[in-house]
């Protein structure tokens, strides 16, 4: 049995979109709890898997990597960023991912 997501009286896919929008796409200042971040990862992954050729995939991948960073899972984030750059190198999201890769690699360098 599939559990329906409901947000502000909206059910299903639209509600899932609203959750993702609230957490990441609007750049809100509220930092979500770990469970919300994990839920966002599942939703983002579900959206990518449902339409892997969608033009929104690079953006979804970028925000999924951001979620992993919030959870402290830098290696997973780096893997997603690198895949994004490899698969969608000409997109604005690949450029942002490249900047994140550089930042994370620099932070990991011994001082």
Summarize, please.
With 111 residues, the chain is mostly helical.
Description of the structure:
- This protein has 111 residues and is mainly α.
- The chain has one domain: Tetratricopeptide repeat domain (Serine Threonine Protein Phosphatase 5, Tetratricopeptide repeat), CATH 1.25.40.10.
- The chain is 68% helix and 4% strand.
- The chain has five helices and two strands.
- The protein has helices spanning 13-25, 34-50, 57-70, 74-87, 92-108, and strands spanning 6-7, 10-11.
- It has a two-stranded antiparallel ribbon with strand order 1-2.
- Strand 1 and strand 2 (10-11) form a beta hairpin.
- The longest helix has 17 residues, at 34-50.
- It is flat, with a radius of gyration of 15 Å.
- The relative contact order is 0.10.
Give a quick set of tags describing it.
mainly alpha, 111 residues, flat, two-stranded antiparallel sheet, Serine Threonine Protein Phosphatase 5, Tetratricopeptide repeat
- Please identify the top-level CATH class: Mainly Alpha
Largest sheet: 2 strands, antiparallel
* Proportion of residues in β-strands: under 5%
Rg: 15 Å
Indicate the percent of residues in helices.
Answer: 55-70%
CATH homologous superfamily caption: Tetratricopeptide repeat domain
What is the end-to-end distance? 52 Å
The ordered H/E elements are: EEHHHHH
Q: Which CATH architecture?
A: Alpha Horseshoe
**CATH fold topology:** Serine Threonine Protein Phosphatase 5, Tetratricopeptide repeat
Question: Count of DSSP E strands?
Answer: 2
Report mean pLDDT, rounded to a whole number. Answer: 81
Q: Count every helix, treating DSSP H or I runs of 4 or more residues as helices.
A: 5
Structural class: mainly alpha
Strand order of the largest sheet: 1-2
Please give the domain count: 1
Assign an overall shape. Answer: flat
Low-confidence stretches: 1-12
